[in-house]
Amino acid sequence: MALKKLVAGNWKMHGLSSDLAEIKAIADAASTFPGVDVALCVPAILIERAARAVPNFPIGGQDVHHAEKGAHTGCVSAQMLLDAGASLTIVGHSERRDAQRESDSEVKAKAEAALSCGLSVILCVGESLETRKAGQAVQTVAAQVDASLPDGEGAAAGVPARLAIAYEPIWAIGTGEVASPDDIGEMHAALRARLVAAYGDAGDQVRILYGGSVKAGNAAEIFAVPDVDGALVGGASLKADDFVPIIAAAQPAGAVEAERSIA
Ligand code: 13P
Fold first, then answer.
1. Contact at 8 Å (CB) between 90 and 39?
2. d(Cα 197, Cα 114) in Å, to the nearest integer?
3. CB 165, CB 207: distance < 8 Å
């Protein structure tokens, strides 16, 4: 049976108090699609206000520090995210891997810290345009996943159900370019194989999201690709009018696993 799809918005560095009404509009609309898990990952400073505004809707962070506490100026711990009302966090987004020079091992440590605190995690991977043009996309991203995946012991504690991988080709982020269904299918199949290698049968429970210029107009085609278990959406998640049709496209016609939830 197909995994319940997760459609998560990544608001990046967007969001003020005046946008809480938009978050409320998205949460209200999401509740009318019970076959889809929906979440919004907002700037850390907005989490608490967003979580108060939409108490039954999953609000997440966009990054987390791997340490529990300490001398890490400007950073936010997993416990702080939870304390503010978050139920999930993104780790390893390419914008951070690039600008903050985050390594695979650092991303892995962040994912483990968040999971062990009880947060769900969306772990991002993706290749550059040069890597894709060189025909190295699948092996590069598979290696990234191998090196950033939280350790397998967690599988016994139900970690795969709280973990999602987001495949986001860097060249497709914010550009209007989208990977072809064939390329997405090839990559997601390779990622599924890596997840099963890491977690055994539980690897089949990890949702694999696609991200990169997902819009209302292309969502249905992307969601129809095997092993696409949802989407991580940037620009088109900022407004309910743009985001809700993407959620609608993920609503299944048939049965899905009933028990999944990001929260
Ligand atoms: P866009 O949907 O704006 O391309 O952003 C994708 C992304 O980076 C989500 O994390």
1. no
2. 22
3. yes
Q: Name residue 109's amino acid.
A: A
Protein residue with its CA nearest to atom 5 in ligand 1: 234
How much is the mean pLDDT over the chain? 94
* Residue nearest atom 1 in ligand 1 by C-alpha distance: 234
Radius of gyration in angstroms for the set of CA atoms belonging to the chain, rounded to a whole number: 17
Known catalytic membership, residue 106: no
Q: What is the pLDDT of residues 102-156, one digit of tens each?
A: 999 999 999 999 999 999 999 999 999 999 999 999 999 999 999 999 986 665 5
Buried b (16+ CB within 10 A) or exposed e, 53-71: bbeebbbbbbbbbbeeeee
Q: Mark whether 259 is an active-site residue.
A: no
- Enumerate the β-bridge partners of residue 37: 6
Which residues, in sequence order, are bridge partners of residue 60? 41, 88
Residue 7 pairs in a beta bridge with: 38, 231
The answer to whether 240 and 253 are in contact (CB under 8 A) is no
Instruction: Write out pLDDT tens, residues 151-192.
Output: 866 655 778 889 999 999 999 999 999 899 999 999 999 999
pTM of the model as a whole:
0.95
- Of residues 65, 93, 95, 106, which has the active-site annotation? 93
Q: Output the ligand 1 site: residues, CB below 6 A.
A: 10, 93, 168, 173-174, 211-214, 232-236
